[in-house]
Write a structure and sequence with these properties.
The chain is mainly α. The protein has a domain at 5-24 and 66-143. The chain is built from five helices and three strands, in the order αβββαααα. A three-stranded antiparallel beta sheet has the order 1-2-3, with no helix packed on it. α2 packs across α5. The protein is globular, with a radius of gyration of 15 Å. The protein binds zinc ion (ZN).
């Protein structure tokens, strides 16, 4: 029997990892940076994806809004595992092999991950990049049971 690593982490852990990476100090509104956020249930198709609404500007958003994961064809667990393997210093070729994803996709993903997970102004994403690099190996390891 072959164990596929993609099945070892579930969506709940993946979304939790994304939340901890993008909002280390608590959820912030992506449009006005307010901390007055209320939860608005979960996504209809991705049941672990939390939705929110900002009490100050009424913007609705979810865990993946404004991140590089939104709208990408790879599922979130592939991204989180990619982060984990970057933390382990695996090469793109090794990551492609482990995840059974083609190399050009892995190259694109690791480039984006290293630039930061939130699409923001250059100054912000630079700060985010530092945070992510500091936290990614720790968090990613936590995501693996
Ligand atoms: Zn707001």
């Amino acid at each position: 029997m072959q164990v596929n690593i993609k099945h070892l982490i579930d969506d709940v852990q993946c979304y939790q990892t994304v939340r901890e990476l993008r909002w280390p100090e608590g959820i912030l509104c992506p449009s006005c940076q307010s901390k007055h956020i209320i939860k608005r249930g979960f996504d209809d198709t991705e049941l672990a994806r939390q939705r929110y609404e900002c009490k100050d500007c009424e913007t609705r958003f979810d865990d993946l809004t404004d991140t590089i994961f939104a709208g990408h064809h790879q599922p979130l667990n592939v991204w989180v595992l990619c982060l984990y393997f970057i933390g382990l210093n695996l090469s793109n070729e090794q990551i492609a092999q482990e995840l059974d994803v083609n190399l050009s996709d892995v190259q694109q993903m690791t480039t984006q991950l290293r630039a930061g997970i939130v699409k923001k102004s250059p100054k912000k994403s630079c700060l985010m990049k530092l945070n992510v690099m500091k936290r990614m190996s720790l968090l990613a390891i936590k995501a693996i049971p």
